[in-house]
Prior knowledge:
The complex is a heterodimer.
Chain A: H1 2-29, H2 46-56, H3 62-74, H4 89-124, H5 128-143, H6 146-160, H7 172-177, H8 186-214, H9 220-244, H10 248-285, H11 288-295, H12 300-338, H13 343-352, H14 356-384, H15 386-389
Helix pairs in contact in A: 1-3, 1-14, 4-10, 4-12, 5-10, 6-10, 6-12, 8-9, 10-12, 11-12, 12-13, 12-14, 13-14
Chain B: H1 2-10, H2 15-35, H3 38-62, H4 67-70, H5 79-82, H6 115-151, H7 153-168, H8 171-182, H9 186-198, H10 201-214, H11 217-224, H12 229-265, H13 275-284, H14 295-323
Helix pairs in contact in B: 2-14, 3-6, 3-14, 6-7, 6-9, 6-10, 6-12, 7-10, 9-12, 10-12, 11-12, 12-13, 12-14, 13-14
Amino acid sequence: MGKYILQRLGQILVTLFVFQTLLFVILTAMPGDVTNRMLTNPDIPPEVRERTRQALGLDDPVLVQYGRWFQNFITGNLGVSYSEYPTPVIEILEERIPRTMVLFLAATIVQFVVGFSMGRALAWQRGGFFEYGSTIVGVTLYTVFTPWFALMMIFIFGARLHWLPLGKFLTPILWRKVDIPGMSDSLTKANYVFTRMLWTATAAFVIWLIMAYFTRNLSHTKRNRTRLIATVIILAVSIGGWAMVDIGPLAWDITKHMILPIVTLTLVGFAGTMLMTRQTMLETLREDYIQTARAKGLPEKLVRDKHAARNALLPVFTGLIISLPSVISGGIITETVFSWPGMGLTLLNATTQEDIPLVMGTLSFIGVLSLLAHLVADITYAFLDPRIRYS
Amino acid sequence: MNNTAHTTSSAPTSLWKMRLRLMRKSLKTGWDIFKENPVGMVGLVIIVFFALLAILHPILMATVWDPGTYDPITGYDFKTLIHPSPPSWLPQPDNPMYKPSFRHILGTDPLGRDVLSQLMYSTRSEFLLGVGAALVTVLIATTVGAVSAYYGGLIDILFMRMADVMMMLPFIAILIVLSSLFQFKMIHLAIVYGILAGFGGTTIVIKSQALTIKVKSYIEAARIAGGGDGHIIFTHLVPNLLPLSFLYMMFTVTGAIFSEAVLSFFGLLDIRMSWGLMIQTAQAAGYLLNSWKYWYLMFPAGLSITLLCAAFYLVGRAMDEVVNPRLRKR
């Protein structure tokens, strides 16, 4: 197990190295360099441009620049943004990474849980309208043009039904009314509230995991009941706690803005998991041990959840690992359409403004996020698969 | 099987004729299996429908449609300016758009251009892009897969690690950056997407298939008969990989069309007209919140992208059953 994780870690590091090299190649292959924009200004003499090139080290051999690129990346020096001069890129990223992470994690986890349980139910009840209907819906959602789908979600739930806001991260009017000591502008306030929300969610999740670990040996029905009650209690305590403090409405405001992007991303992603679970479940159900389990009189629900679904989980999880990059791609699209100020929107804005340090920083981070997600998924897979766990 | 053996022994027919007949035979068997799958047929019907749209556009432009009015990029219906008090289907003075009518079947966009003409014009480039990207992918993936399976060792490790990297990266992020830094046209996108997909996941699948073919006895026989490495790879290994490559072509087409639509929706591609651009035009002009009333601005393009992507995906799924006998229903 430890050896496996170490091996994966090594592979991830090699991949990161290759990815950074790829970024450097793109940057170097780009025609011209940053000092090109000095050419358009007649007030800047050529000597100044030459001096700037030397100061920035653009005249050095490619290999020297490559080494410097790596050194800067490892030390976290990603340069200064042009469009938000003189803010360092790393500061912009620090502010926006949590927002993307929330979107990505929530969508991935919800899509897997929902997709898996729906696929399980689908394989169990074969034939009929339910199966055909959900397969058609599944394929449609799987191939739907994500920006258009997101626009339609905004149109239906935002513009027509007025249930949820149209986009963005918060409603500024609401934030001006509430004072947080020591903070003047709503951006700092937003980061303050959002960080606390994240900590609450993380704590609740960790407590839930501990609870799930301790109830794992109870009998099937008893365990499900205990877990349900504990989940309700954890949710009630965390939401109740937020309702009592005076920044509670602000947190609710952010949550309202968060719902639509997460739902969109989940809907686009969960169909793949659902279709795949159905496929693998159908194959598993043909196995002899399912017949044995039924023959010895186990309840149908137990056969489905413990004997069939547990064995169908591994291929589905592999499918999830493979689809992680497409979830990130979907996140970029969703963020842009909903004006959610995360990494995707930052990437697109930076590219259209030719803010190259920010582009490279964002792209590096998206690569790192992708690789980390892979690593976490691989480790989870190793926990799920006894063949790796015990070797 | 008996039949072919018979022809080789009795009548010395030329080699390519025999190959052609064998190919036709396997195509027919494949088609028979494919036909039984309703899902694949639905996909095929959709693809044929869009292909007809693409072919019809230049014909309509040359015969029925006046280029000044119906050109997908520069067309404008000047009837607006002449008519003193327009009936309800004509553009009103405060709104330059036609509602769907016999004259403009899907209405016109906010700039007064015919939506159906735009839709049909884009279909052609969408097909070219998809097929172009798929060809590049298949060319790369089949060659790399066959070579790394045949030689193994260092080449294999190199290409497989590269495929790992490609598989872990979100394409859209890289394409956004590339297309803004290098001013992409459709053809560049096709090539770049083909390269990204070709070195990625497809290679791994094709290589694993090539590994099972490599150990077959006819490869051994070819080597004993004195065939060189290149000969064995390109006349014995690659032809047997082609069905699988063709299957992955379908999935590449879906990905390529989707990426193009996303990039042109973001306004990053240097192209004249495409489905993504149509949605962007409608959204930028502020018709999103009124999508129901102006359905002909948002729905035709969005549905076209979805349908064409779904169609190639479904055909791919059905072809999967042809190529992998394991998946067939018995």
